[in-house]
Design a protein that fits this description.
Its EC number is 3.6.3.17. The chain is of the alpha/beta class and 256 residues long. The protein is built from nine helices and twelve strands. The protein has a single domain, classed as Rossmann fold (3-Layer(aba) Sandwich), CATH 3.40.50.300. 35% of the residues lie in helices and 28% in strands. It binds adenosine-5'-triphosphate (ATP) and magnesium ion.
Length: 256
Amino acid sequence: MPTPLLEARGLTKRFGALTALSGVDLDVNAGEVLALLGDNGAGKSTFIKVLAGAHAPTEGTLTIGGTPVAFASPQDAANVGIATIFQELALSENLSIAENVFLGREIVRRVAGVPFLRRREMKDVVGRLLDELDAHISDPDAPVGSLSGGQRQAVAICRALYLDARLVIMDEPTAALAVAETRKVLDLTRRLADRGCAVLLISHNIADVFEVSDRMAVFRRGRKVAERRRDATDPEEIVSLITGAHPDVRALDKQQ
Ligand SMILES: Nc1ncnc2c1ncn2[C@@H]1O[C@H](COP(=O)(O)OP(=O)(O)OP(=O)(O)O)[C@@H](O)[C@H]1O
Ligand SMILES: [Mg+2]
């Protein structure tokens, strides 16, 4: 087995007296979509915020490609190739698609020390990425404000690709999308993994998860209570793991 891209060990996060995350061990491999499931308040967002450098863990360790990492900021996580696409996408409505993809990392040419943006080059790069994603967006110069929810997700994914992310984390990417757009985003998610990215997908939609993920991890009350390969489980079992009706989870609940 190759080294997992990401190894979380004993991750714990306490907010004062509240333990939001408790001793979570989890691996994410390159080329796979790992779905994170669990009830409201189970600790999913807290977990990804630790991976994204937004929260420092109270206890526990993270390694990326076998190297221990400790993030002081989201920028630290981005620097080792972790891209997080939050549900409320941080895109600028009035900027173009290409400008959004490059925001903060523009290609600049300096003439006598004066920086000039290389617009044509950025537009070409974005056009190629959108093609590669099969995103059906014809004009990288169009303002993001003119795009649908699904197309915006495509732009956010494109940005993750441009940053050359090794791990892409998506928090409920299809929650607000219509059927056709959900299709597109699920396809893009799969494509990211097929390109060699590790993808961590948070979703409450069991059908989506079964369609796109290779593995599933279920969180409950801050703990990871189960991990399953998609081909070794079914929606009924996953639902019972989430709700706590599953015998394994009932046994764990009793121990607490
Ligand atoms: N910044 C914070 N300060 C205090 N408590 C927090 C903070 N963030 C999360 N929590 C608490 O930690 C627990 C886990 O929350 P988290 O947001 O990780 O859940 P979740 O699994 O993402 O739920 P949902 O599916 O509703 O998004 C909850 O009890 C929540 O109230
Ligand atoms: Mg959440």
